[in-house]
Amino acid sequence: MSAGMELMPFKAIEERGILVTNARGIHKIPMAEYTIGMLLQYEKKLKLLMKNEKEELWDRKIEVGELNGKTMLVIGVGAIGGEVSRLGKAFGMTTVGVNRSGKPVESIDQLYTLDNLLEAIPGADYIVSVLPSTDETKGFLQKEHFKAMKETAVFVNIGRGDLINDEVLIEALDAGELSYAILDVFDPEPLGKGHPFWRMENVTVTPHLSSKSGEYLPRTFAIFEKNMREYLEAGKDFTNVIDLSRGY
């Protein structure tokens, strides 16, 4: 399996005692690069600059920002979230992480549990969600979370689209509760024609491609080969064993 597991019949698999592994971690490099690239796009006003270029407009009054000195909150600091935060540190950002256990994570300056997310949000300039789709995370982000954000905050979702109801996010953006949203995942997909996200000036839409890379198959098969050898040799040191009770 790849990283996403939400379509798996976990109950039936568990009843049969089947071992399931996935390729968790193979997406961390492209997804982290996508995230930093999109934050740079926002701070450096690249969309506006490209528009001005097409219109042959020379405007040096455009205000651009920096990533340096900002605070990035990463919701879900597993393999992908950890790499996002590592790159964030390289750009001089303070990194705050959220995970289930609250256990320390390398490259995270401050850590919160998922239950304490509301405490972490107000200080963040960028909020990046890498959460998978599980019963626990579906619809997890509510109005209260967006109301807690800075008016200048940027929300990035590279996890799963069912983390939030679209109307909740649209309402928050229209009300100025946050500044911008960068969305690579949606529920359902593809994002339908005529959806408000396409037309909103404070939203960037990309077609679920943050994980795409020419290195996808080599990285996947390296994990598969290692696990297959382990299985054939009756070993137990499998990589990325899935906890069927949690769904990931």
UniProtKB/TrEMBL annotation:
PROSITE patterns: D_2_HYDROXYACID_DH_3 (PS00671). Gene3D superfamilies: NAD(P)-binding Rossmann-like Domain. Pfam families: 2-Hacid_dh, 2-Hacid_dh_C. Its EC number is 1.1.1.81. The keyword Disulfide bond does not apply. Coiled coil: none annotated. This is Hydroxypyruvate reductase.
